[in-house]
């Protein structure tokens, strides 16, 4: 009688196990969360992962005998540099002072955004291409006259002149703009 009872319990256990294995597995439902919508006047802090508190206003500092008219955003070499606004890559340029640089015009061609001392450009970046805020366009480095032990992005904003000359324009301080409207990516 004991063996019959044991066989019955074993049979019930096997039946329960088979039922569980055949049971439909629950499916997790994941909500499709859209990318955060940025305010119309938002600007991306142009170095990945950099927060507002890490920014320093050195716009009026004197560098090599002339006003800086930009801010330097410190980050490890190779950190992605991001398009600050939707726009067009107007000029890729290698200069003695700025090293590898990018000039990006906003969509209205009213402002130029200048990214300098890049270690390299992103693989797909070419003159004339459209970019969106947050697109990777290059990588932080020390090209040009940047100190070799201080990788950073030299970031400037200018109001373009009527002739839209990429290297000219009225410099405006990026620091208050980034502190007021900047978002970290």
Please characterize this protein's 3D structure.
The protein is globular and about 35 Å long. A hairpin with a 4-residue loop joins strand 7 and strand 8. Strands 4, 5, 6, 7, 8, 9, 10, 11 and 12 form a nine-stranded antiparallel beta sheet that branches. The protein has a single domain, classed as Glucose Permease (Domain IIA), CATH 2.70.70. The longest helix has 21 residues. The protein contains two helices and 13 strands. Helices cover 16% and strands 33% of the residues.
Sequence-ordered SSE layout with sheet pairings:
Layout: H1 2-22, E1 43-44, E2 62-63, E3 66-67, E4 71-74, E5 80-82, E6 87-95, E7 99-106, E8 111-121, E9 130-131, E10 136-140, E11 152-159, E12 170-172, H2 174-181, E13 182-183
Parallel strand pairs: 1-13
Antiparallel strand pairs: 2-3, 4-11, 5-10, 6-7, 6-9, 7-8, 8-10, 8-11, 11-12
Calculate the mean pLDDT score and round it: 85
Under the CATH scheme, the architecture is Distorted Sandwich
- Spell out the CATH superfamily: Glucose Permease (Domain IIA)
Share of β-strand residues: 25-35%
What is the total domain count?
1
Distance between the termini: 72 Å
* Beta strand count: 13
Share of helix, binned: 10-25%
* Silhouette: globular
Instruction: State Rg.
Output: 27 Å
Under CATH at level 1, the class stands as Mainly Beta
SS class: alpha+beta
Largest sheet: 9 strands, antiparallel
Q: What is the CATH topology descriptor?
A: Glucose Permease (Domain IIA)
- Helix count equals 2
Written as H for each helix and E for each strand, in order along the chain, the element string is: HEEEEEEEEEEEEHE
């Amino acid at each position: 009688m004991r063996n019959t009872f044991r066989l019955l319990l074993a049979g019930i256990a096997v039946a329960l196990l088979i039922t569980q294995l055949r049971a439909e597995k629950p499916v997790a439902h994941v909500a499709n969360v859209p990318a955060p919508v940025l305010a119309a006047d938002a600007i991306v802090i142009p170095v990945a992962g950099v927060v507002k508190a890490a920014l320093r206003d050195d716009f009026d500092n004197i560098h090599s005998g002339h006003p800086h008219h930009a801010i330097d955003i410190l980050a490890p070499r190779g950190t992605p540099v991001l398009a600050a606004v939707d726009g067009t890559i107007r000029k890729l340029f290698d200069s003695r002072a700025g090293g590898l640089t990018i000039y990006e015009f906003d969509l209205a061609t009213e402002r130029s955004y200048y990214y300098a001392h890049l270690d390299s450009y992103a693989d797909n970046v070419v003159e004339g291409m459209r970019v969106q805020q947050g697109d990777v366009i290059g990588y932080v480095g020390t090209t040009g006259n940047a100190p070799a032990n201080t990788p950073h992005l030299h970031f400037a904003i200018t109001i373009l002149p009527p002739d839209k000359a990429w290297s000219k324009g009225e410099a405006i301080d990026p620091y208050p703009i980034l502190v007021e409207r900047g978002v970290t990516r």
